[in-house]
Design goal:
Structural class: alpha/beta
Number of helices: 3
Distance between the termini: 69 Å
CATH architecture of one domain: 2-Layer Sandwich
Oligomer: single chain
CATH topology of one domain: Nucleotidyltransferase, domain 5
Strand order of the largest sheet: 3-2-1-4-5
Largest sheet: 5 strands, mixed
Order of helices and strands: HEEEHEHE
Shape: elongated
Mean pLDDT: 81
Low-confidence stretches: none
Amino acid sequence: MTIGSFNGRSHQAPMADMNVVPLVDVMLVLLVIFIVTAPLLTHSVKIDLPKASSSANITKPEHIEFGIREDGELFWNGEKLASSDLGPRFAAAAQQQPQPELHIRADRNARYESVALTMSAAAKAGLTRIGFVTDPAPAS
């Protein structure tokens, strides 16, 4: 830092010292933090865990292909179904172990009401795994 004077002849070089006080302050704070937290990280309880090996059980539950056409026709795994038979079929499927997945394939122009009623009946019967099947082809 240069201090100006009224004498124009004396030209001093700028001061080239770096202020390290903030750096030292930050380092001391970090040191205190590490000193306080280090004992907390090393505190553990030694236990002898049992050893076992197994392979992954990759069993996929069966699924129900449920179709809804534009005109309201219902299909259970390709078999035509009356709407009055929905409750008993869903209740029987909900009792199975493992519980099957319900894959709903609704027609593009199917009424939302019929899809919502189907989902409601499945949920009331106890089916918890409900999904929609869509066509992955890009729309043009």
